[in-house]
Amino acid sequence: MKVIKRILIIAKTLIKDRFMYPEAYIGGLFYYSIVLFVAYLYSHLGGGFLGNKVIPYYLAGLFMISLIAHETPTYKRFSVWREEILSKPITPDIFLAGFFVGDLIAFSAPALVALSLLLFPFIYRLGIYDSNLLFLSLTMALVASLSVSYFFAALGLRFRYDPNIETATNLFIAFFAGIFVPVQSLPAKVHIISYMIPYTWAIDLFRYSLLGTPTLFPAKSEIIYLMVGTVIALILGRLYLYYTINAIRKRKVIIR
User: Structure pTM?
Assistant: First the structure.
């Protein structure tokens, strides 16, 4: 209970900060507008293998990225809160969980509500393709997001926050995980980059379970790829975070 209370205190602090500055949502709205404009253009080019499901396909991608893209906020939080994290007798896992929950409520929740309303007419007309896989993909997506966040937490402790790194990371994930352009439409030579991002499998499975759109590989294989990638990212990310903390305290690395 004590751990949960600490997590909620950190989350509450983040939520209050977010709602005190509503202009923070402007960037997200701009980002969504760009993606939906790309969807509009893509639909007028014929939509390729997506047929008439282009718009809900892109909306589903935005839904997922809004739910799971917490790696760059974590990088920022751990950089800004560096002194507290390194000096307080609280494990970094609690800080990470607090930031994660806070971002889910303060940023993800409003975006998810808006995107759900936009998706509803399509789902009402088409129905949900696989409800069990839908739940699994959402659950695994959150775990994958937490796993990737460990790496960025370590980077936040090592390096000063730089908005250019945040922007570049968001664009990289949006491009290679299939948010801007379906992975199937990317050159075959760069597919390996997409396959290495756990989000790719979570987003692909979510779209398939919701809309029945074609997947990169058979759904059962993608579930395995997502689970294995998530576990590997969680183990390596957590090890890297604790290695970074110990190295900083022993002055084996330079903090910038």
Answer: 0.90
| Beta-carbon count within 10 A of 16 CB | 11
d(CA 33, CA 2): 41
Rg (CA), the chain: 19
* 161 and 85 Cβ atoms separated by less than 8 Å: no
- For residue range 99-142, what is the model confidence (pLDDT) as tens digits? 999 889 888 888 898 899 989 998 888 888 999 999 999 999 99
Looking at residue 191, its amino acid is: H
Rounded-to-integer distance, Cα 146 and Cα 237, Å? 9
CA distances from 122 to 63, 87, 125, 199, 214 (A): 14, 50, 5, 23, 17
Structural tokens at position 174:
């949006």
Task: Read off the tokens for 206.
Answer: 């979510």
Kindly state the tokens that stand for 243: 């290695």
